[in-house]
Specification:
Rossmann fold; 2 domains; six-stranded mixed beta sheet; five-stranded antiparallel beta sheet; 35% strand
Length: 353
Amino acid sequence: MAKEKKGVRLEHISKIYKDPKTGKDFYAVKDANIEIEPGSFVTLLGPSGCGKTTTLRMIAGFESPDEGEIYLGNEAINALTPNKRDTAMVFQSYALLPHYNIFDNVAYGLKLRKMDKDVIKKKVTDILALVGLEGMENRMTNQLSGGQQQRVALARALVIEPGVLLFDEPLSNLDAKLRVSMRTEIRRIQQEAGITAIYVTHDQSEAMAISDKVIIMNKGLVEQISTPQEAYYYPNNKFVADFIGEANFMSATVKAQDTVVIDGAEVKCATGNMEIGASCSVVLRPEGAYLGDTGAIKGKVMYSCFMGAYQDYHIQVADALVKIQEYNPKNRKIYNVGDEAYLNFQENTLYAL
């Protein structure tokens, strides 16, 4: 679909704003170094105010970096206006033209480029088929559902064949069920088109479902760039561990390269290059442990709730309240509030920070 797969590179990018309350300058984005491979789907992820939307808007050209340089392919684009960049944006609000039908909304950018009518018709017809709106060319946009409006916005961005497609929280106006189906559609369309995509969201499950890589940001800083799996199993720090999925943190001491001591018990744990005797926090995902009548660490059940696919537990272990999800509880012993139980760990599930 795209004329050329283009990558994006941010070199030491910073954006400085003035706080209207204090009058002091602050970094909305600070010294960001990001490389996005051609044809990949990358998500900027983080809480509100972390700098992800500002970063996207700098790539689009709606904001200018105060420091550093942005490259699209091998071209430095800081000085280019948005319409001169080989990018297209899918907005949160869709930004459709209400008095135009689907065809004219999608054809708008091609008409501005003064393309031949027959070429426009073929391009629009092809792209509407790709997004699942074939045969609906004459329908007005105010007659469409939220999901259909999203598809029109996506088609309008894709039809001009940009090198890079940008998404600014495009699913936030949809209900939960439609968000799940639309994110799958966006990923399918991106892969079929073979286009580089940069997507902004604060929804970590959305990011993990569609991304080749996630760029996790916090307070203007890039905390980690990795695959979703790497961010989940090997977070760079506590913020990443806590933001991606649910995490338990337990205090420990490094005993050996692959062993820590938690509440007096030695357990297997990936410790990286930490020094022997160093204090650390151990990350445990709720599905990475299970309860037994014997085991590694003794605890007390503070909460026990049947959730269908899993039994949800909170276990008090020393100074930590550990959340555990035991899947397929039908064939397991169920522990009740007040019971004593031992915490056992699935292999390769503990990671020291």
